[in-house]
Amino acid sequence: MTGSDFHARTRSEFQAFLVQQAQRFPAPNRLRVDLHCHDHNSDVPDELWGRLLKLPETWLPTDKLVQRLQQAGTDLVTITNHNNARSCWQLMEQGMDVLSAAEFTCHFPDESLSIHVLVYGFTPQQESRLNRLRQNIYHFAAYTLEQDLPTVLPHPLFFYSAKNSRGIEALEKLALLFERYEVLNGQRGFWQNRMTQLWVESLTEEKIHQLALKHKINPHDFCAHPYHKCVTGGSDDHNGIFAGECGSFLYVDNLDERRKTEPLSSLALEALRAGYIAPYGEPGEEERLTTTFLDYFSQVAIHMKDPGLLRLMLHKGSLKDKLLCLGISNAMQELQRHKYTLTFLKTFHQALGGKAPALLSNLGVPKEFKPTLKIIKQLAKARRKQPDQFSLTLRDSIPELYREVTGIFFRRLERELDGFKGQRFSRANLNTLISQFEVPTSFRHLAASKMSAQSHMSQVQVFKMMDELTFPALAALVIGGASFTGSQVLFANRKLMNQLADSLNAGHHSERILWLTDSFCDSNGVSSFLKNVLTEVQTRNLPIDLLTCHPDLSAEDHLQVLRPVSRCSLPAPFEQTFYLPDMLELQRVFEQGGYDRIICSTELIMGPVALYLKHAFSVPVWFYMHTDWNEFFSRSAGLNLQQSDRLRRLLRAFYTQFDGLLVLNNEHKTWLESPAMGMDASRLQLTAHWVDASFHQISHRRRLPDSRPTLLYAGRISREKGVLDLPSVLTRIQAHLPDVRLIIAGDGPALKKLRKKMPEAEYTGWIAAEQMAELYLQADLLLLPSRFDTFGCVVLEALATGLPVVAYASKGPADIVRHNQEGFLCNTAEQMADQAMHYLQLPTIQQKIMQNAAIARYADYHPRPILDQLMHNIGLHNQSDSSEEPDLYETQAT
């Protein structure tokens, strides 16, 4: 079956743990408390971007949070704001029984490492002392022990480290400083919570003793019961959406009687000190995290003020952080100018609190937006009437909302682009696009609906049609950005999680490759190769799934197919239709499929998608370089030196974003390593294609040339493939061998021009693979005048049938063909003609030797070692191979 059971298994195991925890204490003797939640007094965030932009972590009023906690069935209120208990003190002044608490940011002395610590039951005077001591975690922890203030380490696997290189060592120290750990955090996923549980369970007395000796830290200086570890839960809610849905059961003996005379805050504090705690609830998954950040972004758009450029530049932080925050600030200010989008965000925010859209909003909504409003109404209704099912409603509603607004955007975009249809993408305007395409530095010009003409700017601008596209574009970006941020939070510490899994020898994430492509159903070499990959993966049940986006293609084992939200067709010289995937669905597929690395085979759509997933899930991404676009455009578009240099720099900027490149020939690899591209040689891995075994199966029928020899060209008929060299090649050969035939198999933009120059050739048009094998048998020699092919699948197909090849000595064919063995390498059209004539005039026995050499060379490109080496190069060392079938290639070779 496609995919992995990692996600489902991790979820099941952690839920079983929660069931066991819920059974620890009898229901009549337990308090239900959310030990980790925030309101508007968490106004100074730890995250640098929040401080740069002057954004609090939430605008949630205290009374709204209290109301939500009570609706969720909590028995006692506590609010854990950052470095202050102002909300707790205010509620106490109003006469409410509240457990005082705060989440303090503490620092390790002389280390670039910071952690959060939840502390309960302190007084205002103790709060002041705690804030002074938090600069040194050791002093802080010793003081809480001295004052008998129970502490909890929240989200233990998520802490702040400048270099993030001391993860396991930091965890070892945390094991000595605390006795209570939050193993259920409502804003972290199942895997992170499960790994926290496994880590806490591994902290045996013997382990604690070993760590104490290693780090020279006495745990008795910081813990009342250092060998007795307790586990807690909390929602970590900042918006009041899920507050109280995760928390802790606190066991109090004889609770019914004692609560009549004692405040619940005192009873809760007693249970915390004794360690009578059990977590309840369920971790956040993608729908919760997406909703949380979508609501936060909505409030940022509603409330954000200009942070001030001078203040921004003078604040501490890197220039990159400041520039990104400057971009965010400008984007939000532009969004605030668009009142319709702002109204949408306000309506969505209110719906999460159960407030349905107002009648006035209903009347003012165009028909196209009615489905969007309907979804928001359903959210509000679910919040009011089925709060316990709200997360399930979100699971369907948020993706549906995203599909609606993206659908509106692409329908409007298509209408706007209708005026451009029918315009041929000539070499002249292609050159113009490459040399002049630009993004303006002015944010107003980027987002304005009417932009001034600028001589140095291309007419292709990012938001040229803003009047029609602003609302759906901004709404889709906000929803997509929230989903992206949610995944980032869930997987930002993937490196530490993997290290911890290795340390515990448990909880390992599955190792699986998701291979992305735009070109699976096309009639080209990339598509053919990827189908061969799929066959090999299916045969051996390898940990690889291919994913493409297509409206009609059916999914199968190891092939994921997403239905597109829109499509775009490129004119000549590309002549290809691209399909745009639903990014929220793609994220769900990636997480639930248990993938942890990516290969991408195509640049235009899936290239940016791969980089999106890289940053969303903190996974490595490799790019498979099937095509040399620098060579392609140079030959097909006739770029001058300046345009070629600009294209090279654009390609370099794109490819350097990947963790590695899979390259198909030595010439291309050398160019990528050169100063022109500046790629680190360690990030470049040579690989190869292979071809379907059916080409080899008919090789025994290979004949020798007869009195009328036949030459063959197979492939795309386009300028970059060198087909316009063929007329001169044929003319030179015919001068000596007038009966020679030349068959041209394929189609492409240069076909008409080639027919005019070489009418005597035989043109077959595009031929299916099974018919192509027969055509190779009819030929006596394959001509490949391309200097562009990064590999040359037609060369390997020809060799598989025993057909020798004459090719230019460049790129892929130069690596495959060994001169004077299974074919010939040359540098000019004249040399190609001469080599062809040389072969056709060889004695029969020498021709037979070359045919046999061709078959032998084909055997060097066996799929098993090629694919195994590729997997090894990207870090998969233990390949699964469940197939017991005999290897087809080995059988044929025998």
UniProtKB/TrEMBL annotation:
Matching InterPro entries: Glyco_trans_1, Glyco_trans_4-like_N, Glycosyltransferase_grp1, Pol/histidinol_Pase-like
Annotated Glycosyltransferase subfamily 4-like N-terminal domain residues: 524-693
Domain of life according to the entry: Bacteria
MF terms (GO), sorted A to Z: glycosyltransferase activity
Alphabetical keyword list: Transferase
Pfam families in alphabetical order: Glyco_transf_4 (PF13439), Glycos_transf_1 (PF00534)
Domain annotation Glycosyl transferase family: ranges: 702-853
PANTHER family linked: SULFOQUINOVOSYL TRANSFERASE SQD2
Designated name of the protein: Glycosyltransferase
Annotated organism of origin: Nitrincola iocasae
